[in-house]
Design goal:
Elements (H helix, E strand, L loop, with lengths): L2 H7 L2 H10 L6 H23 L2 H21 L8 H30 L2 H4 L10 H10 L2 H11 L5 H8 L3 H19 L7
Helix pairs in contact: 2-3, 2-4, 3-4, 3-5, 4-5, 7-10, 8-10, 9-10
């Protein structure tokens, strides 16, 4: 009988005991099996109480990570009741999230709107003619790397293969070329 089949017939509590009783090396197969069983339950709890699929996915990660850490450390008193432990941890985590949301809302109400406190920088207006002149002033290899990186949207690996360069060399060339472009455009004088 394969290990996965053997784990499939074990109850949640038996899996939790295996994880808690594992020696120095964690029992990865038991942890994965327990995670697969409990994740849908935590996700449903999160969807019901948080009403946001992304928040529910975060809840799954947070609760099950904490559960596995506690099991490994032997801090779960009754491993055979692991489902109740996970449900309680889910409930407490949702309460903490809601408290944090209420606390942030109260702070915003007391101290003002966050949009007023944040001043967005002005967008950088580029002179296309000056940019074209600066690009033309670059050595051919640097110009090729910049153009292919930003206009053809190629990564360092693809560029390296196309230009017979290592990916690291492509990154260095791009970095130096962008510094020259900044100087040429006068961006360093503006503090950008």
């Amino acid at each position: 009988m394969p290990a996965d089949t053997h784990l499939a017939v074990l109850e949640d509590g038996a899996l939790a005991r295996r994880i808690a009783e594992a020696d120095a090396a964690p029992d990865a197969a038991a942890e994965a099996a327990l995670y697969r069983r409990l994740a849908p339950r935590v996700r449903l709890y999160g969807l019901r109480h948080l009403r946001d699929p992304h928040a529910a996915a975060d809840l799954v990660q947070q609760v099950l990570l904490m559960t596995l850490e506690r099991l490994r450390a032997g801090q779960v008193r009754e491993p055979e009741r692991i489902a109740s432990f996970v449900l309680g941890a889910s409930r407490m985590t949702v309460l903490e999230l809601r408290r944090g949301t209420r606390r942030r809302a109260a702070l915003l109400e007391t101290w003002g709107d966050a949009a007023e406190a944040f001043e967005a920088p002005e967008p950088l207006a580029l002179d296309p003619d000056r940019l074209a002149a600066c690009l033309d002033a670059l050595p051919e290899r640097e110009r090729s790397v910049v153009v292919l990186s930003f206009f053809a949207e190629k990564g360092s690996d693809e560029l390296g293969a196309e230009l017979s360069l290592s990916p690291g060399n492509v990154r260095v060339i791009r970095h130096r070329a962008l510094a020259r472009l900044r100087r040429c455009m006068g961006a360093e004088e503006d503090g950008r």
